[in-house]
Specification:
The protein is of the alpha+beta class and 194 residues long. Helix content is 35%, strand content 22%. The protein is elongated.
């Protein structure tokens, strides 16, 4: 009894997902989109809208609502819409999958491609997720280069004089400000581990 209930529930879920698809078009032999403009499907819900449309893990999401996917938030569920238009690209099948569906969550987890991370990374933001994507994608050269740029941005931020709204005191150490001696000692004390 429980098995037949499970089968019925899964079947109903798959049918619900198929009804969310308003238009589906496949273009075999389509040229691959630029990976720097894409996100990659890392996980897919087995009976979700995307799975019903034939999207698979490791496919590229190239376009969301007419804009390059790399410029969109990976968390599609955060923005509401009456309907959405997606263009996925299956690399193994060399096939473009154009999907127009209701605004419902389509059942994919996405992350930027390593090419997109390289193209859009901002060192001042120190985004560990981007670094993790490069690590998982085994793009160690880019990881090393972008991590070095991040470290340099952090060094520049530390060297920049901070603008404090705290009242300045004539005596060092008052009003929460470090004395010039303690700052220079902190920066230059050998063996301090700092």
């Amino acid at each position: 009894m429980a098995d037949s209930d499970t089968i019925a529930a899964v079947s109903a879920l798959a049918e619900f997902a198929r009804r969310q698809i308003r238009e589906l078009r496949r273009v075999p032999g389509a040229p691959m989109p630029r990976p720097a403009q894409c996100q990659i499907v890392t996980r897919i819900a087995a009976h979700g809208v995307a799975a019903q449309a034939g999207v698979a893990q490791k496919d590229f999401l190239a376009v969301i609502d007419g804009a390059p996917a790399a410029h969109s938030d990976s968390r599609l569920y955060l923005t509401r819409a009456e309907q959405r238009a997606y263009s996925f690209y299956s690399r193994p099948r060399h096939e473009l999958i154009e999907l127009l569906c209701s605004g419902i969550e389509i059942g994919v987890l996405l992350e930027p491609t390593t090419n997109a991370v390289r193209a859009t990374y901002k060192p001042a933001n120190n985004d560990p997720t981007a670094q993790e994507i490069l690590w998982a994608g085994r793009d160690f050269e880019a990881l090393e280069r972008l991590t070095a740029a991040t470290m340099e941005a952090a060094r520049r931020a530390i060297r920049r004089p901070c603008s404090s709204t705290a009242p300045r005191s004539s005596r060092p150490g008052e009003a929460g400000l470090a004395s010039p001696r303690s700052v220079s000692t902190w920066r230059s004390t050998p063996g301090s581990g700092r």
